């Protein structure tokens, strides 16, 4: 049960934080915009050289098969921050997941002591790195986390819009509506109307992108509260407050009401250790899911809409709408529904009693009914997704998760399903993708509302597409307009 005194203390703290002027840890190290500015000349020069000298070179042939087959294999998009290798998985500026986990800054609150070992790298570190290609210092990230927290509050009209949506509206639709409406804040849209030179576009695109990323924890928290916990706190209120001395993921956990601290209602009564682990799950999940080169639906949609000079809010809300499809980000929700239903249908056994033959039988029943196995297959990858492996490792490193039967079923499934899918013979990649293991981890920490999982994916995915959108404007990339072909054209 929530104590009223806890709630009123939280509300007071929230108000206090809003009115107090937070003392920034000022430093001599350049901030993100200055760092970006310093790397622009060299990268722009290299880009212009490629444009001038290599524009006529061929990168491959476009086949009829790819025109009618989802453009598979066409190298036709420019994306700077990450490249996906079919066998190895994603690399961020040529570094693997494990490498970035190692060198990107973590929370300043968990650099030493017993929490240090399990502390994960921060999504804001990943964004800095994606955007600049430079490894930020701890001090730069500490300051950047403060900047995001300071810009994190939602304007009253967004609260009003969200409060007026039916709680039955899918959380992803709520997120895309809120992000679209935030375009009311767009400095880019206003500057464009005023009339600015093209060389200045990126500055406003950058400012809007930072502002949008900063507001995502509050959007995620507000949608969670309105949709599932409306009775817990009053209309217009939150399940937690933004703490300006804490990182983006910590604040997201607080605003979800899932943090054992004075900053949050702690709706599930999590212990201190469990709550710290949950914050680390958000950090890992969001840093890992941020960027997956340019061709995935959410990244490509953001890039496409942005190419018409739609502002970052409009562009990313298009990305969110693509992420909400079951073949893309919504698979995170579908996997949990799938795994929980399978678990029940197997008779809710203990993990030691899982029988491969029963799991195989279940998988065949899905395949034979013409459905896909969610969380398996990929348009580019041909090996198990290293992001899935990293999430699995997170779970296996924590006793309470490692012993959770649903988590164990996900683990077991990753060993059994590839054989079944191979025998089925359709999918080009029978291995688990990123969505295979993430939802069940959130489920473990008490986020059991399956329709909600992709909203957290939506907060994370902002990092890659928005970083590229800033570069699209720096480099002056044109409106995207491929040529389409009709059947007669294909036959000819
Ligand atoms: C964050 C992400 O977006 S990760 C992906 C999340 N999506 C999922 O997990 C949903 C399940 N997976 C899929 O539907 C697919 O594997 C996709 C959408 C990810 C990739 O699609 P494609 O590139 O078209 O895959 P592929 O070329 O292997 O498809 C060939 C056939 O195998 C089928 N297939 C692919 N994956 C699966 C699967 N998991 N279960 C059953 N059948 C599958 C396809 O539906 C297709 O059938 P069809 O010929 O009857 O149309
Ligand atoms: O790359 C893709 O097409 C899908 C994917 O895994 C992602 O967007 O994270």
From TrEMBL:
<dbReference type="InterPro" id="IPR016142">
    <property type="entry name" value="Citrate_synth-like_lrg_a-sub"/>
</dbReference>
<dbReference type="InterPro" id="IPR019810">
    <property type="entry name" value="Citrate_synthase_AS"/>
</dbReference>
<dbReference type="GO" id="GO:0019629">
    <property type="term" value="P:propionate catabolic process, 2-methylcitrate cycle"/>
</dbReference>
<protein>
    <recommendedName>
        <fullName>Citrate synthase</fullName>
    </recommendedName>
</protein>
<keyword id="KW-0808">Transferase</keyword>
<keyword id="KW-0809">Transit peptide</keyword>
<dbReference type="Pfam" id="PF00285">
    <property type="entry name" value="Citrate_synt"/>
</dbReference>
<dbReference type="InterPro" id="IPR036969">
    <property type="entry name" value="Citrate_synthase_sf"/>
</dbReference>
<dbReference type="GO" id="GO:0006099">
    <property type="term" value="P:tricarboxylic acid cycle"/>
</dbReference>
<comment type="similarity">
    <text>Belongs to the citrate synthase family.</text>
</comment>
<dbReference type="InterPro" id="IPR016143">
    <property type="entry name" value="Citrate_synth-like_sm_a-sub"/>
</dbReference>
<dbReference type="GO" id="GO:0005759">
    <property type="term" value="C:mitochondrial matrix"/>
</dbReference>
<dbReference type="GO" id="GO:0050440">
    <property type="term" value="F:2-methylcitrate synthase activity"/>
</dbReference>
<dbReference type="GO" id="GO:0036440">
    <property type="term" value="F:citrate synthase activity"/>
</dbReference>
<dbReference type="InterPro" id="IPR002020">
    <property type="entry name" value="Citrate_synthase"/>
</dbReference>
<dbReference type="GO" id="GO:0005975">
    <property type="term" value="P:carbohydrate metabolic process"/>
</dbReference>
<keyword id="KW-0496">Mitochondrion</keyword>
């Amino acid at each position: 049960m929530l104590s009223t005194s806890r709630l009123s203390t939280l509300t007071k703290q929230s108000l206090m934080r809003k009115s107090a002027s937070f003392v920034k840890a000022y430093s001599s190290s350049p901030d993100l915009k200055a760092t970006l500015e310093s790397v622009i000349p060299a990268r722009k020069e290299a880009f212009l050289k490629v444009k001038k000298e290599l524009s006529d070179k061929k990168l491959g042939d476009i086949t009829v098969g790819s025109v009618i087959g989802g453009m598979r294999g066409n190298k036709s998009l420019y994306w700077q921050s990450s490249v996906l290798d079919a066998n190895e998985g994603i690399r961020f500026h040529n570094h693997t997941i494990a490498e970035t986990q190692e060198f990107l800054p973590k929370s300043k609150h968990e650099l030493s002591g017993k929490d240090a070992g399990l502390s994960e790298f921060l999504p804001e570190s990943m964004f800095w790195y994606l955007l600049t290609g430079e490894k930020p210092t701890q001090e730069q990230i500490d300051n950047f986390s403060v900047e995001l927290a300071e810009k994190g509050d939602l304007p009253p009209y967004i609260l009003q819009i969200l409060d007026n949506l039916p709680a039955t509206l899918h959380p992803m639709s709520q997120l895309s509506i809120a992000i679209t409406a935030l375009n009311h804040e767009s400095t880019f849209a206003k500057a464009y109307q005023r009339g600015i030179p093209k060389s200045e576009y990126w500055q406003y695109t950058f400012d809007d992108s930072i502002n949008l990323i900063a507001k995502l924890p509050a959007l995620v928290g507000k949608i969670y509260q309105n949709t599932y916990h409306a009775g817990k706190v009053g209309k217009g209120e939150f399940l937690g407050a933004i703490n300006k001395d804490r990182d983006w993921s910590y604040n997201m956990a607080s605003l979800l009401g899932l943090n054992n601290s004075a900053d949050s209602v702690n709706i599930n009564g999590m212990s201190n250790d469990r709550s710290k682990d949950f914050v680390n799950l958000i950090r890992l999940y969001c840093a890992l899911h941020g960027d997956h080169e340019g061709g995935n639906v959410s990244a490509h949609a953001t890039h496409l809409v942005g190419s018409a000079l739609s502002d970052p809010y409009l562009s990313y809300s298009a990305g969110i709408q693509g992420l909400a499809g079951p073949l893309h980000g919504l698979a995170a929700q579908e996997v949990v529904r799938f795994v929980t239903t399978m678990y029940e249908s197997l008779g809710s056994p203990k993990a030691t009693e899982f029988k491969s033959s029963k799991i195989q039988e279940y998988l065949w029943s899905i395949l034979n009914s013409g459905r896909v196995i969610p969380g398996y297959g990929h348009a580019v990858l041909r090996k198990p997704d290293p992001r899935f492996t990293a999430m699995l490792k997170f779970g296996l490193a924590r006793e309470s998760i490692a012993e959770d039967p649903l988590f164990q079923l996900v683990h077991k499934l990753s060993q059994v399903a590839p054989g079944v899918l191979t025998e089925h013979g359709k999918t080009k990649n029978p291995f688990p993708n990123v969505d295979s293991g993430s939802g069940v981890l959130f489920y473990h920490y008490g986020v059991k509302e399956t329709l909600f999982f992709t909203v957290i994916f939506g907060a994370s995915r902002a990092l890659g597409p928005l970083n590229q959108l800033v570069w699209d404007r720096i480099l002056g990339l044109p409106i995207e307009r491929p040529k389409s072909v009709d059947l007669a054209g294909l036959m000819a």
